[in-house]
Amino acid sequence: MCECYELNAKASALNRRFPLLRLAQADMPRSFEMHPTDPVLMITSTGSGHMGSTARWGLVGSFLDHEPRNPLITLPGVALSCRPFYSKILKRNRCLIPATAFHAWQHLANGAQKMRISGPCGELMMFAGIFDHHPLAGTTCAILTSGANAAVGAIQERMPIILEQEVCNFWLGEHADFPDAEFEAVLNAPSQYRLKIEPVIEEAPSPQLALAFT
């Protein structure tokens, strides 16, 4: 997955998706394009509902003595529940990271083309994520990934794990006995999510604007 995703949606759209969320527009990120280290929106469970809050994109586990130079922006979902430290985060700190698209680079004979990957009707997507609280780095998060489906696989090998609504509720739910097998099934299931892939056409700067900075 490219180190960029998009959240171009109103708070009201998220509130309709999660009726107990009650996000205000001021709670939404100021930028539509999210990049590593940016503050991003995540949705978590409060037990009685859902809460939207901000985390920095790039996971810094609380078990680390100091912040790494390149925090993990993505983590493979496969066998995550078996990995030391990260399995503990998976069991206690799961989140959803809403997006309207993510970007990838398609390598062509004459260079690389930035591609925008979204739902076919522009609907909100929910990425599976985990987060943690570090005494120095604060609250940080990462997006979990799986092997790419047939459409995305023509561009890159991996893609975010996109959760359907009923799976979102299971993902955020509280579990007295953590259902390892069920979570492994979610993290390893091939994506059936329909996606639209289109090139991003970058607008060339106007001659007047270019002239102003010469």
Key phrases:
5-stranded antiparallel sheet, alpha+beta, globular, single chain, disordered C terminus, 214 residues, 7-stranded mixed sheet, 33% strand
Anisotropy-based shape? globular
- Residue stretches low in confidence (pLDDT < 50, at least 5 long) are 209-214
| Helix content percent band | 10-25%
Assembly form of the protein: single chain
Structural classification: alpha+beta
* Average pLDDT rating: 89
Note the total helix count.
6
Strand element count: 12
**What is the percentage of strand-forming residues?**
25-35%
Distance from N terminus to C terminus (CA atoms, Å) equals 36 Å
Largest sheet: 7 strands, mixed
Determine Rg (CA atoms, Å): 18 Å
**Topology pattern, helix = H, strand = E:** EHEEEEHEEEEEHEHHEH
